[in-house]
Amino acid sequence: MKRAPRHPSRPLCRLARGAALALSLLLAAAAPVAATPRNIILEAEYVEPTTRYAHGVLGDAIEWGALRLKVDFCSGCGAADIRQMMIRLPQTRVFEDVSPRLVDLEGDGAFGVMVVESDLNKGARLAIYNESGLQAATPFIGRAHRWLAPIGSADLDGDGLIEMAYIDRPHLAKTLRIWRYDNGAFREVAAVKGFTNHQIGWNYIEGGIRDCGTGPEMIVADADWTQVVAVRWDMRVKARALGPYSSKAMRDALACAK
After folding, report:
1. 103, 153 Cβ separation under 8 angstroms
2. How far apart are CA 245 and CA 248, in angstroms?
3. What tens digit of pLDDT does each residue of 187-196 get?
């Protein structure tokens, strides 16, 4: 049987197809890429007050059973599709907090919501929720009626990743803890005793994170409430006293007036 003769134009066809493919790839690379629509959390608030967790660290017996989100489900597509969503906790948990906080974990404007979530048996943890539910969380402290007071979130060491900071048991352990958010999870990077930001019965948390032009600093009080302290973190905790403690001094420090 004779082999069929090779088609004389086939190599030229392969070359033509290769050139066409290269040109199409070049044109695709040059063309602007349309932004992919994404969900954006616009607002968050605690709702459904409850007395199922008898702690009262914030001054009363009322905590919160749910988190209501206002979400734009079509940001970037030229039309708004704003809806409300409810994240409801099981009966064994509450939001034990003063207010939810919007945080930009990826630096792209797609916010998560930082909350203090307490389990009736295991105490508090820091958690991040988005419109799909729980996004990430630190471990629970491990015992009922043990709480944490958030300081805030920022890229504390300038590496491009966001850190979350809080005082673990501000009335007992008085420990500053810093957790880095990376690849969808928290990893603890620092834990140092000797700081606080809340007293039993306050319905607010003092201090926070400031940037007065030289990078982020955490503003807290020392453990015995005598000094306002600025704390930096760059692979290690560096604290410096700013002056005698008062609520006004804390506000002034946060506003870069100290």
Report:
1. yes
2. 8
3. 999 999 999 9
Q: Rounded to an integer, what distance in angstroms lies between the CA atom of residue 61 and that of residue 47?
A: 15
pLDDT for position 182: 92
pLDDT (0 to 100) of residue 37: 57
Q: Quick check: 210 and 179 in contact, CB under 8 A?
A: no
What token pair was written down for 227? 């000094």
| Res 53 pLDDT > 70 | yes
Q: Name the percent of the chain lying above pLDDT 70.
A: 86
Q: What is the pTM of this model?
A: 0.84
Three-state helix/strand/coil letters over the chain: CCCCCCCCCHHHHHHHHHHHHHHHHHHHHHCCCCCCCEEEEEEEEEEEEECCCCCCCCCCCCEEEEEEEEEEEEECCCCCCEEEEEEECCCCEEECCCCCEEECCCCCCCCEEEEEEEECCCEEEEEEEECCEEEEECCCCCCCCCCEEEEEEECCCCCCCEEEEEEECCCCCCEEEEEEEECCEEEEEEEEECEECCCCCCCCCCCEEEECCCCEEEEEEECCCCEEEEEEECCCEEEEEEEECCHHHHHHHHCCCC
Residue holding tokens 């015992």? 143
| 73-77, 98-102, 222-226: least confident range | 73-77
Q: What mean pLDDT is predicted for residues 68-87? A: 88
pLDDT at 19 over 70: no
Hey, what amino acid is at 114? M
Q: Classify residue 176 as exposed, middle or buried by CB count within 10 Å of its CB (0-12, 13-18, 19+).
A: buried
46 in Cβ contact with 86 (< 8 Å): no
The token duo for 50 is 């409850």
